[in-house]
Amino acid sequence: MVSAKMSRGAWLLLLIPVLAQAQHAQNPTLRDQVVAAERAELDALKSGNTAGFANLIADEAVFVDAAGPAPKKEVVEHVAEFRLLDYTMSDVQFVSLSPSSGLIVYRAAETGTSHGKNFSANVLVSAIWARQNGKWVCLFSQETAAK
Question: What is the pTM of this model?
Fold first, then answer.
């Protein structure tokens, strides 16, 4: 009888992480939501969905790269001739800024085409995301070439 109780107890111990993961899937953390929003933005670039990409950017957003800062309109115009073929995100770090906003920082390896030319890049990315009017939008993004 003792071994049966231990066996049931062992099963319960094995189920706890599964149940916790199921609960986590139903209630994603702020970090999970921001990472998902960033991935949605990158996936829009991968699928060539410029309108979907633009919908994920706040009207007042500023993006920064080696060419300098650019407002949403300029960024969206630029990505019309930009397509990601593949990307990976690694070393993801997150800082909560408020209950509905956060900063994500990560390393990305990207391949794609830009203005008709193939490219491959390793970049460091930082982005600030906020939930506005019930949806996630990017307020700021910066890409820096990684060494």
Answer: 0.80
* Tens digit of each residue's pLDDT (9 = 90 or more) over 17-37: 543 444 444 579 999 999 999
Q: Which helix (H) or strand (E) holds 72?
A: helix 72-79
Residue 4 lies in a domain: no
Report pLDDT for 16: 47
Query: 13-26 as b/e, with b when 16 or more CB fall inside 10 Å?
Result: eeeeeeeeeeeeee
Question: Which domain range does residue 50 map to?
Answer: 29-145
Tokens 């829009």 -> residue: 44
Report d(CA 122, CA 81) in Å as an integer.
20
**Considering its fold, how many domains does the chain have in total?**
1
Read off the CATH number of the domain in which 131 is found: 3.10.450.50
Task: Tell me how many degrees the CA angle 25-30-35 measures, rounded to the nearest 5.
Answer: 80
Question: pLDDT digits over 94-107, tens only?
Answer: 999 999 999 999 99
Task: Tell me whether residue 46 is in a domain.
Answer: yes
Q: Which residue has the tokens 């209630």?
A: 27
d(CA 72, CA 82): 15
